[in-house]
Amino acid sequence: MLNQIILVGRLTRDIEVQNSENGKKYVNINLAIPRSFKNADGVYDTDFISFKAFDMVAESTSMYCKKGDILGIRGRLQSSSFEKEDGTKEFRIDAIAEKVTFLNSKAKDTPERE
Fold first, then answer.
1. Most confidently modeled of 74-78, 103-107, 110-114?
2. Terminal CA-CA length for the chain
3. Cβ-Cβ contacts under 8 Å for 73 (sequence gap 6 or more)
4. How many other CB atoms sit within 10 Å of the CB of residue 62?
5. Three-state SS letters, the chain
6. Could you tell me the pTM of the whole model?
């Protein structure tokens, strides 16, 4: 069995590296991905998918990508659960980016980041 997703979309906002409580570096990546078919009104809807990336993938993505760039992401889905304050259990599925491919970068038009 294989848990793998591959999506291509446009970055909806600039990315900032953050540090988790245990010191691990991560970023949140949000992609706008147009659907390949029109809805009942004859319009292409867009899905907005959020990913997390860690360590070197997080750093290189934040360094070279800006809002509006087109990215290809290969990753996996990861499930987790937690208990809410009222005692109920909540389940969540996160998309984790394992590889990010820069398909259309505007880095040439902007000053280099150090």
1. 74-78
2. 41
3. 5, 6, 7, 8, 9, 29, 31, 51, 97, 99, 100, 101
4. 20
5. CCCCEEEEEEECCCCCCEECCCCCEEEEEEEEEEEEEECCCCCEEEEEEEEEEEHHHHHHHHHHCCCCCEEEEEEEEEEEEEECCCCCEEEEEEEEEEEEEEEECCHHHCCCCC
6. 0.76
Q: 39-67, pLDDT tens digit by residue?
A: 999 999 999 999 999 999 999 999 999 99
- Both tokens of 51, joined, read 């990913």
Pairing of strands 70-83, 25-38: unpaired
Task: Please identify which residue in the block is written with the tokens 């029109």.
Answer: 38
